[in-house]
Amino acid sequence: MSGIYDCKVINQPFADPMKKISLSVFVLFGCTPLWAQQNVQKPDLIFTRNKTVLEAKIDSVGTESVYYHSFIQAGKGPLKLSLTEVTSVRYADGREQTFDRQPVQSGERINVKKEKRTSSRQDKPKREKPKDTGRRPVVSATIAAEGMRMLGNDNWVKDDEKAAFENGVGATAALDLHLTGRFAVSVSGGYNQWRVSRNYAENGEVKFNAKTSFTEIPLHLGLKLYPFKGLYLMPEGGYHIYTFDYQDGTELSEKIAGGSVAYGGRIGYELRTGVFLMDISAKYNLVNVGDLGNGFSGMGAARYAGVRLGVGFIQRKK
Questions:
Q1: For residue range 241-257, what is the model confidence (pLDDT) as tens digits?
Q2: What is the CATH number of the domain that holds 169?
């Protein structure tokens, strides 16, 4: 009986439940860091020239770029970084790879988003501006004063009762379109007048005054040819609207209007300074007046020469 009461506990650890729980907790937390260290994946590292280190999962390294996924944002799509922006990469297993590409100039730095936007621009061919040949069309406009003198026909210049149209004055406006450096089209219009005034006297006493005038509105189209810089030759032709007027205060007064074809030419020189223009030229015109009847019958063609001095401006077409 005494052997029963002297019995000893053989498995001491199981005799104390709290010690068992403490031992289990110690083993669990002691082994967890070792298990985590063996199973957590390390990132690849990308070292950039601006001293930034990117944690990534490198997919591949090409001849121009590094292709990778973000290590932090695993669900983000594939990314790309130019090798000119990368100094080296270090893989998770410890391997390293360096690059000696020169960085791009300021303003051309490539990142992922900019590279996607600029790639489409680079694919498009650049448009080249057309070369300036120096012969773009230009427009010039001038206004001018003219002095003229009748030539040849005695019916116009002789000093009789109605004619004697020797010297005249006028004004013109011209618009030129320069198609090339040596060719231009000119459109012009103006107003010319010859005027004679006479006093008729008897026994030294003036009986009456007579005024005779010849006026015309010339409308011309000409072609300017420039053999040398500034110098031009211009054949021209058009239509003249004219009026003969004789007034002496008697029943002999009359006024005749008409029109006829005219032609002629000019030789001149243009002096250009910036947008300003000076035009000096000499001209010759022939107007087929014909037979007007009455007191002006038999006048024939009017031929006159003149000098023109004009100023204006010139503007290049954009």
A1: 988 887 876 766 778 88
A2: 2.40.160.20
